[in-house]
Amino acid sequence: MHVTQMTSGDLPAWTLTGALLTVAGHEVDLEAEARDVQVSISLYRCPAGSVTRELGNGCQYLAVITIPPLTYSEAIADDIEGGEEGSVLVPTPDPLNVAATHLEIWAEEV
């Protein structure tokens, strides 16, 4: 995972375990969020201290997570719909390349 510190100061705690990213206690399952197109997820810290994906009154940027598009490999499927005999190549999603994800993270304001 590429990490860019957007502002100077103390960063919120974050961890990456497999494809599970946790920023300031808010979990994002990168594998579950991945799509056929690049996905950007914004996280905000709100005045009450909660972390949300929705920009509310008084909330400030905490992080932006950019997940690359899914890639596919071809696999052979022997069970063709309609009972036809033979095999067909079908696209199968590859595991998410977590190393290609990007985390932009802002220092917490005091």
Keywords:
single chain, 110 residues, mainly beta, three-stranded antiparallel β-sheet, 10 strands, 4% helix, elongated
Task: Please characterize this protein's 3D structure.
- This protein has 110 residues and is mainly beta.
- The chain has one domain (2-105).
- The chain is built from 1 helix and 10 strands; from the N terminus they run ββββαββββββ.
- The protein has one helix at residues 30-33, and strands spanning 2-5, 14-17, 20-23, 26-29, 39-45, 51-52, 60-67, 72-77, 88-93, 102-105.
- Strands 1-10-7-5-6 form a 5-stranded mixed β-sheet, with no helix packed on it. A 3-stranded antiparallel β-sheet has the order 2-3-4.
- The protein is elongated, with a radius of gyration of 19 Å.
- The two termini are 27 Å apart.
